[in-house]
Structures are given as C-alpha cells and as structure tokens.
Amino acid sequence: MALVGVEPTRQVLSEVEGLEFTVLDSRCCGMAGSFGYEQGHYEVSQACGERMLFPAVRGTAADDLVVAPGFSCRHQIADFCDNRRSLHTAELLAMAG
Questions:
Q1: Is the pTM of this model over 0.85?
Q2: Of 2, 33, 53, 79, which has the maximum CB count within 10 A?
C-alpha cells in the first residue's frame, strides 16, 4: 500500500456486489517488517497503530471482516486488537468470488 496507495484496492472492492467497506487512511500500522519488534521501536510502533488502525478495528462488530493487505498489519492487528483475525485482500476476493 505504501508504494501505490489504497485507490487500486478501493476500485477492486467497489466492484464486489453487495460489499460495504471503509478504507482507513491510517498510513502505517507501525510494524514495518521487524521495525516494531526491535528494541527501542516498540513504543513507536504501538503509537503508530493506536493513532487510527487499532481503535478502528476494536470498534468493529465481531462479525465484521477486517482486511489488511500487509503481513505486518495483520500481525499488528492480532497482537494489539484482542487477537482479532484479519484477512488479506485476496482472501476477501476469493470469498466473494
């Protein structure tokens, strides 16, 4: 997402009939590979996620799907959002197909 932004994903998801979704402009989840687990970066990593991503995920209903294209983002969501599972965009599209 960092290289191309969210617009291509938004376009693809908008073509899925009956899918209602919200794309967060959360920028980075804070992990960025191993950055968030390196000594001295943990607090920065968590603060980045707490800026928008984590509160948004925690605010969703239990049966709402959470989709995050990045491995790091999905890992952060599991770690900081009560072990909430998130899907890759391709998994969502496979379910819809």
A1: no
A2: 53
